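Hallway conversation turned thread

IA: we were arguing at lunch whether anyone had actually written out DUF6545 domain-containing protein end to end. Turns out nobody had. So, for the record, here is the sequence (418 residues) and right after it the structure tokens. Reply here if something looks off.
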Amino acid sequence: MTAVKAVVFPACAVLCALALLYKLRDLRHQRNDPALLALLLAFAGKGISFLLSTPSVSQAVDARLGVADIGALGIHLLGGVASSAAFLTAIVYWVYPPETARRRALVRLLIAALCAVAMIVLWAMAGSGAQQRSAHYLLQNAHRPLVAAYLLLYVSAFGAGMIEIIRLCRRYGRVAGRQWLRRGLYSTAIGASACLVYCLNRLLSLIAVQSGLDPLDWELLTPVANGIGIFFLVAGLTMPSWGPSVSEWRRLVRNFVTYQRLHPLWRAVYAAVPDIALDPHRAGRLARFLPGDISYRLYRMVIEIQDGLLALRPYMAPDVATGARKSAEDAGLSGDRLHAMVQARSLVSALRARQDDRAPVRTSGEPGPESAKGGGYTEEVAWLLEVARAYTAVMSTDRSTDRSTERPTDRSTERNVP
């Protein structure tokens, strides 16, 4: 068990330190924000408590200060009472108006301070006759009335804070306007629930000792519950800050992937109608993978494809569209996939007609096959993706057909060579 704690608790301390450093950046612009200050104090207190929870560190602190079990007191005050009150204060300022939040926060901080004073008194009284430190202070001394009272006070203060955090996060998470704030509140509730499991485990240990059981038999629950708890607390309480950046990166990646999928369709249309390109110098292969402002480049690509399809519409023969529709229906296609296949077949036919300098088969104002698709920009991108997918499939099928028809001809030619 000591080995597990020696790994989990330092990792938790590092996580708290990273969260503290991350939120310190906001201090320059939000110096007077009580929620931010409370959050910084919570991460600092929790990080120190996890550091003290590392067996070798707490032992060294006790030896250095010459006071038995003072490390345990620091763990419980900083990691339980103080940090839970600070976390709760930050959330209170998030969900309530400033005046209401200030009043509620002061009440909670006052209760936490009274609990801390009472715990210090009980700890001092319980340790007055102690000659050596306890490796597991609460578990090894739970049979002593003073330590039992200390444990109950600690669990009550810590657990009550977690219950209130869960209540507030669940209540206001349902009505939070911002997506990442809502996710953050729900994640925080999960973390507080894990910490509450730890509190219940400590309460159970008090009952177990009185029943003659050894709580060390299930002490693995302590590092597991604390590790899960701090992970979700850190993630949830910092999520409103870094979450929007994740959404932005996800949007950029999605746009880049869409840009690559549309590129074969754009390249074919651009080869037939070069005038569609606003910046012809960006039509090279390097520009495809280094597009610069990907959102703008994708927007331009969509417009240019639309302009190209409009310019190629006179070359889209109605009989080709009719045949493509029948073939697609025979293949079991329906809905947008069927319409996209008709559009792709008509486009391939138009590109070949344009390449061969054939005369247009319809007037430019006459609608082409499947040319009118309703909706906004997002719907238009989705439609062009379907067309691009169908166009790639058509070209692949045509190439396979061309190769299969060329091979017999080549063999017959070889037999006729004298």
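OS: looked through it. The mean pLDDT is 88.
IA: good, adding that to the notes. The first helix runs from residue 2 to 24.
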